[in-house]
């Protein structure tokens, strides 16, 4: 049985479970994470079992205090401190050389480590209360959608983890940007809420953009972030004609106002702005899985750089 814990009254229970080496799903501003004490390899190993995740996929370590950085990374470049100052707490993961004492269970055997300070008051309070750093991937079964609410975590992992700490709906809704600082030029390995252009502004040097499904990020596989139902993506004209031809019941997720006039059952309009859209995307796909209708039709969002992270996740969700 998995406990559903309230952030208001049960923070101590969550702290005790983590300290005892149990798995607790925790809220972050991006998506819920499946947390274990990062200094306890037996606890971290349970994450891979609960998710069904291959052991060579490294985990991100979440810290609550900048002073913890040097316990997890070595040879920390000045660029890391500049980015931490500008974007932490926040949705940016720094890839650095790992400190010698970090267990290979955390890093999937790699010599680098991903670290971030999450911007969620509930998780920050928990990290600060316990003094722990937690290793946490997204709290979904392997290849499924990342959860943005406690109930979505429960839907995927109930019975496989000790508890979920409910901190409400995630405000960002998409996974963090991952930037690799271990080689000469900073490189974004996973597009996310913080763009390469924003990183360049702070660093004053070029930052290379991600290649689609970068093999330097184990687990950055092509088919990922998938809803239970087949997802098809169309531009506006294609979607209008697909809806006219479709005899099947479909769930339609769209941005253009034209689709509202069609009064389709089980359809939903997504926000025009990137941040609003990202916040609701996974939630809407989760919801689509629970509605009648055998397929999800989605209107392709804008293809501009601002929408890179959304388009990256959508490509994987439909592949
Ligand atoms: O927003 C987020 O980043 C969320 C929240 C919970 O913090 N976490 C998250 O973790 O998305 P996960 O494990 O689902 O995705 C992290 C990705 C994985 O594809 C992993 O392989 C990659 O980051 N990664 C982590 N450490 C790495 C390393 N040392 N080298 C290369 N890739 C790494
Ligand atoms: Mg994930």
From TrEMBL:
InterPro entries, per database record: DHBP_synth_RibB-like_a/b_dom (IPR017945), Sua5-like_dom (IPR006070), Sua5/YwlC_C (IPR038385), Sua5_C (IPR005145), T(6)A37_SUA5 (IPR010923), TC-AMP_synthase_SUA5 (IPR050156)
Major localisation: cytoplasm
Compartments (UniProt record): Cytoplasm
Catalytic activity: L-threonine + hydrogencarbonate + ATP = L-threonylcarbamoyladenylate + diphosphate + H2O
GO molecular function: L-threonylcarbamoyladenylate synthase
Keyword ATP-binding attributed: yes
Family matches, as SUPFAM superfamilies: YrdC/RibB
Keywords from the UniProt entry: ATP-binding, Cytoplasm, Nucleotide-binding, Nucleotidyltransferase, Transferase, tRNA processing
Domain annotation YrdC-like: ranges: 8-194
EC number: 2.7.7.87
Pfam families: Sua5_C, Sua5_yciO_yrdC
Function: Required for the formation of a threonylcarbamoyl group on adenosine at position 37 (t(6)A37) in tRNAs that read codons beginning with adenine.
Family stated for the protein in its record: Belongs to the SUA5 family.
Protein name: Threonylcarbamoyl-AMP synthase
